[in-house]
Amino acid sequence: MSGWAERAAAAILPLSVARNLAAALKEWSYSGRFFDLEQAHGTCELCGQQDLRYHFEIDNRQTSASLLVGSECIKRFEIAGLDERGRRLDAAATGKLVDRHRRGLVEDARKQRVMTALLTLGQKDPSFDAANFMDFVDDRGSFTPKQVAMIFWRLGTAGIEYRPTDWKVRMRRDSDLGQLRTMTPAAYRRFTAALTAAQRKRIAEIEERFASYGQSWRG
Ligand SMILES: [Zn+2]
Q1: Are 99 and 164 found together in one domain?
Q2: Does residue 134 have a pLDDT over 70?
Q3: How far is the CA of 76 from the centre of ligand 1 (A)?
């Protein structure tokens, strides 16, 4: 047995009816319950992997035992997820379910960091209308380029740490792109830290198009 399998057998056999790993794993299913530990200090109770931020619960209906594990272990050991009627899903469908739950946790954590930064800024700087921007996160999910450049500047000035990539920037409308053209170089630099790879590529394409006409996109 591999190291993974040995550790899993040691963890799971005492909590299962079957006496070998393959049969024991079939007694278990992913409960659909998952937890954000907020810091990466969790351990997978199946394989012993450390530094997990998210825990997923698996349980055994025959013994009523449950374990908190990493999402990778659910896939690695093909522990079945359940559909809404409680029927066992196959490995591919379970993998999709776990990935969806994990993405939800990551997205919630991102949104929480944005909200916390806005709230902290509002407390430190009463002239900043935090509530209005927090509504913005809830309603639209993304900010205009100008808003992001302004918020980053104010966060920096107030000494509040933030992850630029947590902030979603809207670049759909011409008016969004128009804002970029008139931004100061410093604001533009701050703003670009928030961009996704796809958005960076789009800006590079616009710059190239302007350059091909011998023009400069920005100023
Ligand atoms: Zn594990």
Answers
A1: no
A2: yes
A3: 8
